[in-house]
Amino acid sequence: MGIQAGDITDLVNSTLKDLGRNKITDIATDLTSYVAADKLLQKSKVTFGGGIGYQYNLLNEDDGNARNAGLFAVDNINQVDGTLTGTVPWRHLTTGMAVEKRQMSMNLNTNAQVVNFVKEKRYQRIIAWVKLLEANFWDGPTSSSDTDTPFGLLNYWLDYDASTGFNGGNHTNFSGGPGGVDTGTYTDYKHYTFNFTAVSKTDAVRKMRAAFVKTGFKGIPGTKPISDYKTGNAMGIYTTYDNLYQLEEILESQNDNLGNDIASKDGMTMFRRVPVEYVPYLETNHATSDPIIGINWGCLKTACLSGEWMRETPFAPAPNQHNTLVSHLDTSMNFVCEDRRAGIWLGAKSDPMSD
């Protein structure tokens, strides 16, 4: 028995009742906001490349030739090979939508139409895609055998360590190192870490201060003959609500003239003039470890295969269903942090992988 118009819930809901025309309330999104997706969907955060993956170059050593010398000193000049490369493979995201030609015909009657049916289906599709992108960014693959999921922060680029300092090395699940760069050999590719117990000035805040100062690499004075990958210096701090509200209360305690607003500092918390942002995904999935993540968006970006960023295919007939039209949305990409020591840092109460 074929599916009839009355059996298609979405079609009935979008055509029959003459209520709320051309408006719809979204209760399909699970989180109050998608912080990473909002950043990553800005085209300025996407860098394009070709080949079988994204490759970047690292300069690990100077040449060691500089010295203090007296008159008639004998030259001692050596050449040092100080470069290496990091590589991340492409990962592929896909989604799609299907409509039946006759569904669209039924929805064309302007007197009966409540919302545009195709626009509704397209919006449903992007909701699912954004949810996936958010999860991919903060977490990433749970093991090295996962060859489908992009390299996210907490399961790849960031490595938890309870010690304070540049201790973020090779992630437990990826012993070869991020981008194939073994931090056991190339220690300058480690990122900053710390553990905290309390969100207080003498614990988490003090360690955040140190993270900011010690990851602020400015490079050699003067103009470099070769450009680096850094695109600006846009810092961000991202954490759970459990951490954020305590930072807000610390901020309130510093000010004796708050007026009549009992939550006057909510939504205004800054750390070294950088907004501290609540990340619902971290709250939902990492409430035990309560991570505080620093990101320099000039060092962390989305690498995308040229021509494959959110590429939408035109509607085409589905095989064996001549009245069904299908459209796909495809992306070939991965997340990349070329400079871990200046680009990212992680503070947490415990290992986020254990949440």
Name its key features:
single chain; 355 residues; alpha+beta; phage-related protein like fold; seven-stranded mixed sheet; six-stranded mixed sheet; 9 helices; 15 strands; 23% helix; 25% strand
Task: Summarize the SSE layout with pairings.
Layout: H1 9-15, H2 35-40, E1 46-49, E2 53-59, E3 83-89, E4 91-100, H3 101-107, H4 117-138, H5 153-157, E5 165-168, E6 191-195, H6 204-214, E7 235-239, H7 241-253, E8 270-271, E9 274-278, H8 280-285, E10 292-296, E11 300-305, E12 311-312, E13 316-318, E14 321-337, H9 340-343, E15 344-348
Parallel strand pairs: 1-11, 6-15, 7-9
Antiparallel strand pairs: 2-3, 4-14, 5-6, 7-10, 8-9, 10-15, 11-14, 12-14, 13-14
Whole-number tally of structural domains: 1
Which structural class fits the helix and strand makeup?
Answer: alpha+beta
Please write the CATH class name. Alpha Beta
> What helical percentage do the residues reach?
10-25%
Shape: globular
